[in-house]
């Protein structure tokens, strides 16, 4: 993780959940943890926790990852937006799992009200930032990230429009097996991405 480039920090009443050794990262960043969760295979048995930190210990042998459990707790506590810090470096299986979490949060549905319950999710390690969108658009500011990619999650994306970038697109198609909308560059203050049909990960990068 690239601490010096992180810009997304909790504010006000934001709930901070640290998953296992993520607690050490939160401490290093000066972020107060409200809930510490995990099997503690990386952190070890937590000792001398500050007052007010809720500790949720889970079995080491389980179906969900610590991050998936942390996201579930966040949703139970009423989260309507989630930021995941870390996980974009190191083991590729962990990274792929995080990308799936972002997709799942976008696709959530409110079973009682029978309508979409879309939860925006951003994953960042400072130098990179990822989000999932479907049949939607996003404006990317060049304040921190100069490059971006549109990675198809579905078999095909249709009606892809890219503006304000070095390689613009107009009503283009992108297939999952031919990811050619990679490493584009914002040329102005911002870039506009619109995907009329399909789901994709939007990846922002510093270099």
Features:
207 residues, alpha+beta, Rossmann fold, 6-stranded mixed beta sheet, 4-stranded antiparallel beta sheet
Q: Could you name the CATH homologous superfamily of the largest domain?
A: Thiamin pyrophosphokinase, catalytic domain
What proportion strand?
A: 35-45%
Number of beta strands: 15
Strand order of the largest sheet: 4-7-8-15-10-13
Q: Termini, distance in Å?
A: 15 Å
Helix content: 10-25%
Choose one word for the global shape. Answer: globular
Order of helices and strands: EHEEHEHEEEEEEEEEEE
Tell me the major beta sheet. 6 strands, mixed
Q: Strand pairing plus helix content: what structural class?
A: alpha+beta
Specify the number of helices. Answer: 3
Mean pLDDT across all residues, rounded?
A: 90
CATH class of the largest domain: Alpha Beta
Overall radius of gyration = 18 Å
